[in-house]
Amino acid sequence: MTIAGRRSAVIAVGAIVGIVIGAAVWVSGGGLGETLLTGAIPVAYAIVIFFLARRSEVAGVLAGQFVDERAEHINLVATSWTVGITAVLVLAAFVWALASGGSWQPYAFVAAVIALSYLGSLLVLQRRS
Questions:
Q1: pLDDT attached to residue 3
Q2: Sequence ranges of the domains in the chain
Q3: Stretch 16-21: mean pLDDT, rounded?
Q4: What's this model's pTM, rounded to 2 decimal places?
Q5: What's the mean per-residue pLDDT of the chain?
């Protein structure tokens, strides 16, 4: 896929996500203004990334446009940090919910998804290499 194709994909994904989120708000009983605003946020984000990707290395990485191996490596490390921090926060929320008598099931589900997707990724990537 060309760089222009990847940049265009950013807008397409933003539009799809905006439509899906807007539809979810509308179906749940949200008003027209709330629906449009909620749906417009991902679209606006995608448009900003689309136009900044040529001028900003960070926006380019967010658009999937890596200028070199260094940018691709930074993206992999940032992704790794993000997943690790998210996993720790989900586990902390799980413990907090247990200790306070709250609903712990959503946190357990998210933690299980993180763990299983990581394990599955390891297995697939090790078999491919």
A1: 56
A2: 1-67, 68-129
A3: 97
A4: 0.72
A5: 92
